[in-house]
Design brief:
This protein has 365 residues and is mainly α. It has 15 helices and no strands.
């Protein structure tokens, strides 16, 4: 047998990575550096988690009803949350009418959840949104059906945060799409306007836009004409988020293969038909992760409206700890709203991962 026909010598079987030990070895102890990091993280968890559990659930006196009783235990003051949770969640909305913002929040969360379920992605979903927003407006403002009128200066807490973020996302997304298409337009005037707007808005922080909308905008309005402070803040949030959505969508459009555009043109479709039926669905699927990041940031950034005197969730938590009888419990207050923000942001993040998996099924064979 010559050298060309010699058989390849047998090799040992590859080491298995199945089972718990295989998973640990490949994921946590694959290299010396990973081993050191794993041990360090385990040490930090062993130091932090037991202390946190003790502070939250072991030390507290769940029967405590006063600040003095809470301070004596040295644990988390659940009595503070029991006493102030309605102020934190609903702000200075009339106490006897707080079932209305609660129901409005449930309606908003419900319509958002329905919008995340693919079965509802049908034309009637638009009518559901219109009906839901009308109900929210009726519940929050009142003045009809026997409900007392409550001006929006008394809105606050979680419902206001949900309203600002929901309307901000709902209007910023289509506006951002138009800006992205305008920036890629072949018409110089349209492209220039979109570029100037996007770069100008992205070059300043949201705080400055909120400040300008609250303080400077009224100076340029005609005498006797005014825009509600909450509406001005909502417009500033929409304009700010739309610029970031536009740049993200533009990245998705640039990532599209040129053949997709050529194929759409070869079908004889108009520009808007190409965008609606072929280009934008694929581009948006590419940029789901950064878009979700923008939406999560927008939900959290609504807390910045506190600088213009709007009583959002963060301001409500701040007011709750200003009570002389409950001073010194700011940790409890801010941890409470941190959990609320985490629940919403984590839910959005998990849904985006699920949506990516659903839309990516056609890419695998």
């Amino acid at each position: 047998m010559n050298a060309a026909t010699q058989l390849t010598p047998e090799r040992p079987a590859p080491s298995t990575a199945e089972g718990a030990w295989g998973w640990l070895r490949t994921r946590l102890f694959s290299t010396p550096l990973n081993t050191i990091l794993t041990v360090l993280m385990l040490w930090l968890l062993l130091m932090a988690v037991p202390a946190l559990i003790e502070w939250l659930f072991i030390k507290p006196d769940f029967a405590a009803t006063t600040a003095q009783e809470c301070q004596a235990t040295g644990g988390y003051c659940w009595a503070f949350i029991a006493e102030k949770h309605r102020l934190i969640l609903f702000g200075i909305y009339p106490y006897d009418e707080q079932w209305r913002p609660l129901l409005a929040s449930v309606i908003l969360i419900g319509i958002i959840v329905c919008s995340c379920i693919r079965w509802f992605w049908r034309p009637f979903l638009g009518y559901m949104w219109i009906a839901a927003l009308v109900l929210v407006g009726i519940l929050m403002w009142g003045g009809v059906f026997g409900l007392s009128f409550v001006e929006n200066s008394r809105w606050g807490g979680l419902p206001l945060t949900l309203i600002l973020s929901t309307f901000g996302i709902a209007f910023a997304f289509p506006f951002g799409l138009l800006l992205a298409l305008g920036r890629r337009s072949h018409m110089p005037a349209v492209k220039a306007v979109c570029v100037v707007y996007i770069e100008l808005i992205r070059g300043v922080p949201l705080v400055s836009l909120l400040f300008m909308s609250s303080v400077m905008l009224p100076l340029f309005l005609p005498e006797g004409f005014s825009i509600d402070k909450l509406l001005r803040a909502q417009i500033a949030i929409i304009l700010f988020a739309a610029a970031y959505v536009a740049e993200t969508v533009r990245g998705g459009l640039q990532a599209m293969p040129k053949g997709q555009f050529e194929g759409a043109e070869s079908l004889g479709l108009s520009y808007w038909q190409q965008m609606r039926k072929i280009i934008l669905p694929q581009a948006l699927k590419i940029v789901i992760p950064p878009l979700v990041g923008i939406f999560i940031s927008l939900f959290k950034d609504t807390s910045l409206v506190v600088i213009i005197g709007i009583f959002d969730l963060t301001q409500a938590a701040k007011v709750a700890v200003s009570d002389a009888a409950w001073r010194g419990f700011s940790t409890e207050s801010y941890l409470f709203i941190a959990v609320i923000y985490f629940i919403f942001c984590f839910s959005i993040s998990r849904y985006s991962l699920s949506l990516e998996r659903q839309l990516d099924q056609g890419q695998h064979r």
